[in-house]
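Input for the complex:
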Amino acid sequence: MAEHIETSNDVTVALPTITERIPTVVVDDAHVIYRVHKGASGGTSPVAALKRIASRTSAPNIREVHAVKGVSFTAYRGEAVGLIGSNGSGKSTLLRAIAGLLPVNRGAVYTQGQPSLLGVNAALLNDLSGERNVTLGCLAMGMHPDDVQRLAPDIIEFSGINQRGDFASLPMRTYSSGMSARLRFSIAAAKKHDVLLIDEALATGDKGFRKRSEQRVRELREGAGTVFLVSHQLSSVRDTCERTIWLESGELRMDGPTDEVLRAYEDFSNGK
Amino acid sequence: MANTALADPDAGLTQAQLAARYGLRVAGERPSLADYTRRLWTYRHFIAAYSNAKLVASFSNARLGQLWQVLTPLTNAAVYYLIFGLVLKQNSIPNFIAYLTAGLFIFNFTQTAVQNGTQSITGNLGLIRALHFPRACLPLAVMLTQFQQLLASLVVLVGIVLVTGEPLTVEWLLLVPVVLLQALFNAGLTMAVARAGSKIADLKQVMPFLLRTWMYGSGVLYNVALFEENLPGWATRLVEANPMLVYIELARHALLEGAPLLNSSMLQLWLYAVGWAVVMGVGGFIYFWRGEQEYGRG
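Predicted:
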């Protein structure tokens, strides 16, 4: 369907471009609630636990965090949407819900195809070498082993972990935090995506790597239908996104053109 | 067609209707059982690579490295032989050391797979929240890692059996279907405990006791004839159907000449073995699949 419409647009370019807007991500009153284990604190004694079981109340060291509270919006093909908000406002959680990695408790998220989350937090095996992690990460993204073998040298080259000697064959636990973040980003960015969700990934690593990764994200954007970008660097949101959504403590505070939303957000953060 | 629509045709639609109009799907929707199985099959390389990686990682800090794959079962066998063979003399069984190690290694396969399987979801939440793949990959990889361990243990076992003077017969080949049926049984069981463990964190504490009880009920360390001597008839029939006892008896029957068996009929043993493998393999898979969307929540 998508290809069909694009070609029909090519034929009729003479007309003013009021193209049909095709939604790719529809979020309908989504609520996400995390269950967090607080760790040892008051009320963990055996007697208290027995009392809880008898009275059928939930354990006090499990707290529910209502991270996203009833967010609704629609994103369309060809859009790049920025997500901003202070720490803990539910941006990353919302991205995970869109990616289908974290189920919503109420409401619904509908997507075109399978969105991919491009983050730096793809946990891998720290006891294994960088090379093996590349193979494992690519296979986990559903790549064919032949493709993995073909792409692996490029991924390691892109991450730049071999700039100071042969680190690719060392276990990942020996890496600096910057190096392992770079490798994770490189693995995640090696795949093509329909709907692309980028979580703070542009802030990773040193200046040279940041340039390379911004370039790669631009390439990925050209191939992807819709891009979401979570970032604390407002400049990168301004550069890449024409539309911005502002979340504050799990609620949608503003949704509109990037300039307007960023201005309001800056006023808000300065006024605090 | 795109350019003629000046008025927004989508005005007045609810979000859900809009999504339906353009054929969008619910994010993270659970695929049908057939689709899920197909997807799992396309991820077979990931399962293999992940289980290999886990195996390598578990020895990466040890000085003797993967030699421990063989040393661990050997040491285990030595300790149990010291206690049950030399200190608490067992004279009722011919070739007790081979009888003991066969039971021990077969049981250990299931025991470790279940123990690690209980944590296969909770221990990989980072991976689950970052990437898309059929979650059944994780418990299956745990099973496969333990299967590789079992193969190393079986090399040790065959060595012990030969050294203790058992003849090499055609019946040894029966060990192959036994181990494969047990692997299928374990795959289902590992998936089942993986889902249960992701819901109930306390299962991790309870598991060692359940497994130890199971071990004593499977006649690993002593003569299985003790069940018949000390239990009422119905209880003995129950123990006869215990899947672990079934797989252990079959393995002993394949390798050893004079091993005492609780089940008198070989046909009944094989029927139990196939039945358990199919019921647990399919049942565990379906049970795990039904929870597929929930695993990211933790």
